[in-house]
Amino acid sequence: MPDEVRDLRDRRIRVSVCLAAFNGAAHIEEQLQSVLAQLGPDDEVVVVDDASTDNTFAVVTGAGDPRVLLSHNETNVGSVRTFERALGLARGSYLLLCDQDDLWVPGRVEAMVAALDQTAVVATSVAVLGEPLEPPRWPLRARDSHRYAANLVATLVGVRWYFGCAMGIRRDGLEMVLPFPAYLVESHDLWVAIVANTCREMTHLERPSVARRLHGANQTPERWRSLPRILAARWMLARCIVEARRRVTAA
Q1: Number of domains, the chain
Q2: Which residue, 87, 214, 39, is CA-closest to 138?
Q3: Is the pLDDT confidence value at 1 over 70?
């Protein structure tokens, strides 16, 4: 086997950034720049393009960085399944979730990796792009990290700010997180948080790790949804809690 091939196979990847992309050409290049600036030479960014109809694929390819690994869904499957695929493709010890249109705050990677050395999942506060980092728009408190039951209730009610763009998973935590439940059609981030709190493996970091860009195409709704949709979402999350408990018991 050639030495260069052996070196590639033996290379230990520390951090994998898992990014689900869909029609993100307007902002994804700037996001990638903010991510790559914090990664080492042996880290990776796993981008899964969910059958975009714009030139997202070309923009990512044009980044010209060997750390960016680009895959393409033949058909549009939605953000939940695209993130699931990205997590499955990632090879690193620490997996950091990433949206296509935000900016990472300097120091994010090292802060989250340090937290993941303590627990299988980390979640941070989230700021808004163009606003001061402090106080963050969506805060998490360190003192709530180990209030697992309260976190589950708050997640179910909708008052605990777990955003996927500010979350990370240690590789051994994937054993509980994957596969996503078949009925999970939104809020992959809340599923990860539910698993983490059920396993008692959650850390909250108060300092924001990401500045979130707000616009009409965000996955998170900008307005209140109808009551039937709210109730359907809460029922889905309740099922997720039951499934997480089942996986913990079976482990």
Answers
A1: 1
A2: 214
A3: no
DSSP secondary structure letter of residue 201: -
Q: What is the pLDDT of residue 228?
A: 87
Which domain covers residue 214, as residue numbers? 3-250
Alpha carbons 56 and 24: distance in angstroms, whole number: 6
d(CA 127, CA 124): 10
What length is written for the chain? Answer: 251
* Mean pLDDT to the nearest integer, 183-212: 98
Beta strands in the chain (DSSP E): 15-21, 44-49, 68-72, 94-98, 103-104, 121-124, 127-128, 167-170, 202-205, 210-212
**pTM tops 0.85:** yes
Q: Residue 210 in contact with residue 123, Cβ under 8 Å?
A: no
* Average pLDDT value over all residues in the chain: 93
